[in-house]
Amino acid sequence: WFRDLIIVKYLPDKVVNKDQVSRISRISQNSSAESLLSKINVLEKAHRELRTNANIRLLLEVMFLSLVKE
Question: pLDDT tens for residues 6-32?
């Protein structure tokens, strides 16, 4: 979904969630590509840490706070 938020800005025909294009476009207008990439990085970091048996509760708390901060 975050990928589509970035893609819709530059290549709208490449959006994966075609049924959500109008919603994705509307939401995408409120965020810069940098901000969206930062959020994707937060999610990727959380995914990596889950694989290393990190404390799930703490990981989710940090992830959500990071997503809101951006």
Answer: 999 898 889 999 998 999 999 899 888
Per-residue b or e along 29-51, where b marks 16 or more CB atoms closer than 10 Å to that residue's CB: eebeeeebebbeebeeebeebee
Rounded to 5, what percent of the chain is helix, strand, coil?
80, 0, 20
pLDDT for position 1: 78
Among the listed residues 33, 29, 23, 35, the one whose alpha carbon sits nearest the alpha carbon of residue 67: 35
pTM of the model: 0.75
Average pLDDT over residues 44-57: 90
DSSP-based three-state secondary structure for 16: coil
